[in-house]
Every structure is written in C-alpha cells, then in structure tokens.
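BACKBONE GEOMETRY TOKENS
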Amino acid sequence: MAVTESTMMELGHPAPDFSLPAANPEVDDRGDDYRSLTDYDDADVLVVVFMCNHCPYVQHIEDALLDVAHTYQQRGAQFVGICSNDPENYPDDSFDSMAERAREKDYPFPYLQDASQEVARTYETACTPDIYVFDEERTLAYRGRFDETRPDGTEAHGGDLRQALDELLETGKVTMEQHPSMGCNIKWKPDVEPAHAA
C-alpha cells in the first residue's frame, strides 16, 4: 500500500474558508445543509480532519477519533470532517456513502463533501487522514498525525492530537513536537493533481 505524508502547512497560517454540504446536517442543525468556517466562530478551537470512507489509515483511527471528538467538543473544541476524494472514481466516498457512514458510526461532527477539491487545495492537503487544529483566532496551531500508530494491529489512541488540544485549550499555544500525518493520498480528479501533492 502506497503511503503519503502530509505537507505540514506553515504554523500560524489563517484557516482557509470553506462552504460545503454536510452529509449529516442533523448533527448540528443550523437550518440548511451547508457548513462554513464562520459557522463555528463560537468554538475555542477548530479541528479540521480530512478523511474518507475507504482508506485503511482513516478506518484505523476512526473509532478513536470519534472518542477524541466527543471528549474535546465538551471542552470547547469543534471538529469538522471533510472528504475531498473524487466521488466518481471512488464511489465508496460518494456523498450517499458519506451519509451512510456518518449514520452508521454516529459521527458527532459534520462530515462535509469537497467535491470540487478546492478546499483540499487551499489546505494543501495530501493524504487522509490529515489533521489541522486552529486556535481561537483561527490560526494554525497544530497539523500532522493523530498518533504514531498504523493499521498493523496496534490500537489507535490519538495521543498527539490529545496533547495538542490539551496544550491549546489550557495555555493558548502548542509547544509539542509535531510529526506529519501518513495515509492514503487524496484521490484527485484526473489531470488536476495540485503541485503540492505531486
């Protein structure tokens, strides 16, 4: 299985905006099916997770990720999942499949479809999972891996993300060493793979 590392966007980068349809809009009913960056202005911390249904690396962390989201959303963080894979060539990552997965696993956060892949481009996303944590001012405080485990039988625990969130919520900054995420490459549409992912 080919493994891709995250690009590690520069810390301090402002959170790129997005406006994307949620496959599970009922999770935080806001009157319509689209979610944007400004919908979560009241959150102390915003965690953006690029993910998908079919990647073994995402499946490996999925249950632990949901546990982390449940825990830290009670402490003032807001999680958002985004799937940017080409839904035509990867039907397991279609909007309907996303909705089914979110219901099946009872996602506690909105699961958004980036069908144009423009949001993945602006976030310089290269792989799934890829995690970005923005502080109260919506500048990038952490990016990289969920933890050091891989889908080889070891259990995911989210230690890196938990430590980053603890530091950020308690002190307003992240001082820990940050490591790239590793996983499946974003499934770009034909002939549109961006330079950062080449």
In short: Residues 139 and 156 are 27 Å apart (CA to CA).
